[in-house]
Amino acid sequence: MHIPPSLYASMRFNFLYADRYVFRRGWNYPDKYVPYCMLRYILTGRADFLMDGERYTVERNQVCYIPEGCRLECHALEDEFSFISIRFATTVQLNGSDFLSEYFRIPRVTRQADPEVLGYFQQVYENATSQNTSKLFRIRGNLELILAWLVEHTPEALVEESAQPEADCSVEGLRRREDRTHASHRDPRIQVVVDYLVAHPAEPFDSEFLARMADMSPSSLRRLFKEHTGKSPGAFVKDLRMTTAARRLLVTNQRISAIAYELGFDDPNYFARIFKSVFGVSPQEYRAASRG
Predict the structure, then answer these.
(1) Is the dihedral of CA 204, 217, 37, 280 positive or negative?
(2) CA nearest neighbour of 38 among 261, 291, 229
(3) C-alpha distance from residue 281 to each of 143, 211, 241, 246, 265 (Å)
(4) What kind and span of H or E run contains 203?
(5) pLDDT at 45
(6) What is the reported pTM?
């Protein structure tokens, strides 16, 4: 397949977030609009993913690609279902549609990924949660290695159909398409705020401080942040703290009350209620299930 150099020059993948999730049978992710792209490597168990109404049953060692703009619903089918999830945005779309699916024909579910692919996912996750000054380069490199592997393992019949000679891939054509997309999803000012929040999940939430960091008013920050991530800053911080708590439950023996206090919750019972609203189980049940 020939890809014009102008298309390569305009193509970027902006990393948003990565984490590891563990859920029990009965976990349901309600039908929601997904405002960014996601890649999920299934570590254990099976689940049904409904993407735009089409059902896919995913299982261990499979990679699931969830494009921006998709409606997603999930249901765990086994006692333990876990995956690594990477969220990112692309800077190229074709006529408002999904670039990776339309041009490269990346399927929604790729069967039996090679062991090296799991290594790429783990590198993204580990660097996303580290303080290494080189982490952004390592994240970007491993994300692109995952996408390269997915493209290389696309069925040939699909690749042959993907040339799309009618698509305008000139620089001007790409610029025109970009003007029709939601540029705020890639606003570098918002990305600075996202990177800061991911690096400081336990700090007190201060919308005025974040607005000054982004050099915009608090109302503009709330609007653009939601377009960029799909969530308000407050909701993003809440989910970030919950995923941070989940990680600590998995990898440490800290008391649950200590985890709650460190993440800014004065009331451990309130922390437990919020945690259950996100993960469907209490912190105690989450820790027990992950170690059982």
Answers:
(1) positive
(2) 229
(3) 31, 34, 16, 11, 18
(4) none
(5) 96
(6) 0.60
Q: Identity (one letter) of the amino acid at 69?
A: G
Which amino acid type is present at position 29? Answer: Y
Q: Whose structure tokens read 């708590």?
A: 245
pLDDT tens for each residue of 204-250: 889 999 999 999 999 999 999 888 777 889 888 888 888 788 878 87
Q: Give just the sign of the alpha carbon dihedral 263, 266, 272, 278.
A: negative
Which three-class secondary structure string do you get for 105-171? CCCCEECCCCHHHHHHHHHHHHHHCCCCCCHHHHHHHHHHHHHHHHHHCCCHHHHHHCCCCCCCCCH
Average pLDDT, the chain: 80
Decide if 193 contacts 215 (C-beta within 8 A).
no
The answer to whether residues 170 and 6 touch, using CB atoms and an 8 Å cutoff, is yes
Q: Classify residue 57 by its DSSP letter.
A: E
Q: What percent of the chain has pLDDT over 90?
A: 36
Contact 97, 67 (CB under 8 A): no
The amino acid sitting at 100 is L
* pLDDT above 60 for 170: no
**Beta bridge pairs of residue 49:** 56, 74
Among all chains, which residue has been given the structure tokens 């996601």? 38
Cα gap 15→143, rounded to integer Å: 8
Token readout for 281 is: 């189980």
CA distance 207 to 185: 19
- Residue 159, phi then psi, degrees to nearest 5: -60, -40
Tokens 């990565």 sit on residue: 18
The CB-side HSE value for 47 (13 A sphere, CA atoms) comes to 33
The predicted-structure confidence for 102-133, as pLDDT tens digits, reads as follows 778 899 999 889 899 999 999 999 988 777 77
